[in-house]
Amino acid sequence: MRVITFFFLSLNSFVVQGQSEPQNDSLIYWDERELEWSDFTARVGLLEEIMGEAISYCTVLASTIDKDSCLYYEIYTVFNTNHSWVSGIQSSELLRHEQLHFDIVELHSRKIRKAIIDGVTQGDSQEEVGKRITSLINEVSVVQNDYDDETLHGQDADRQQEWVTKVRDSLKQYESYSSPTGNVFFPTSQND
After folding, report:
1. Domain for residue 25, yes or no?
2. Which residues face 57 on adjacent strands?
3. Crossing angle of the two packed helices 126-151 and 157-173, in degrees rounded to 10
């Protein structure tokens, strides 16, 4: 199974492109429910060596409400059913493996929320915050590939369980960044 992760970003001048909360029946929000095989509704791909493809992504929109006091952000983790497909074996183990890919995207969404909040409250420049976000976006692809490599795409049950534990623990660690929307107030010193 091949996993593709996209990040759509718009953070004023933090990064370059974006969209607000996705509105589409083919999207499953991370906090809505866990994935089911029936969510993989796209037409089967043409490459025989690939058993399927799962498309999950994070959308980021950030804008200033009042340029001197507050930044509003929306960061959603979604799974796109219309672009995800599977052929062959649909085991519960493989589905759990795919769910953890989705969880890894949510973990990085939380890390991006934290980077925005920390950057704004610490008075970092938009460029500095943008660099942190870009680094996290690059990191998620590396983590997804490491996950597949280390678990043999979910075939190594022991390594799979290690990853489940690691990702769940990390999600708990970043629990305070789980809300997709928020306001961050600029430090008072920037208003003077």
Report:
1. yes
2. 6, 78
3. 160
Among 162, 161, 170, 104, residue whose Cα is nearest residue 137: 104
CA angle 174, 64, 136 (to 5 degrees): 35
Report how far apart, in Å, the C-alpha atoms of 74 and of each of 27, 49, 180 are.
16, 37, 5
Radius of gyration of the chain (CA): 18
According to DSSP, the β-strands at 70-80 and 27-29 are: antiparallel
CA distance 32 to 106: 12
- Say whether pLDDT at 150 is over 50: yes
Q: Does residue 73 fall inside a structural domain?
A: yes
Rounded CA-CA distance 191/186 in Å is 8
pTM, rounded to two decimals: 0.81
Considering its fold, how many domains does the chain have in total? 1
65-117, pLDDT tens digit by residue? 656 677 788 888 888 888 887 877 788 998 999 999 999 999 999 999 999 99
